[in-house]
């Protein structure tokens, strides 16, 4: 015969073979955890803390793209009253606020101007 018969592997290394087959799947999960899951959880935690720290006078960006100023933070309710134009106030759900703009300090503004020119 020109073709030799193929024989199955020996059953001695069964446990080690199973671990070697599962190792790539475990490594993929670990990579996904550190590159995708963990950073997303950190961003969610930071966003929750940002929403808890909202106060009157903060300039915010809503998820709809509207820049507004917080006029009243309602305690116990997930709503915030914001002013989107002079004398135009609306209530928005707290979770729709995507960012809070931090005002630049006067010293920071002067330093950036002097470094340009």
Q: Which CATH-level-2 architecture of the largest domain?
A: Roll
Biggest sheet, spatial arrangement of strands: 4-3-2-1-5
Overall average pLDDT: 84
The total domain count is 2
* Sheet with the most strands, sense and barrel status: 5 strands, antiparallel
Report the strand count: 5
CATH class annotation of the largest domain = Mainly Beta
Radius of gyration: 28 Å
Helix content: 40-55%
Q: SSE order, as H and E?
A: HEEEEEH
Content-based structural category: alpha+beta
**Ranges with pLDDT <50 over ≥5 residues?**
none
First-to-last CA distance = 88 Å
Short description:
The chain is rod-shaped.
Task: Explain how this protein is built.
This protein is rod-shaped. The chain is built from two helices and five strands, in the order H-E-E-E-E-E-H. A hairpin with a 2-residue loop joins strand 3 (79-85) and strand 4 (88-93). The protein has two domains: 12-53; 55-117, SH3 type barrels, CATH 2.30.30. A five-stranded antiparallel sheet has the order 4-3-2-1-5, covered by helices on one side. It has 117 residues and is an alpha+beta fold. The model has no long low-confidence stretch (mean pLDDT 84).
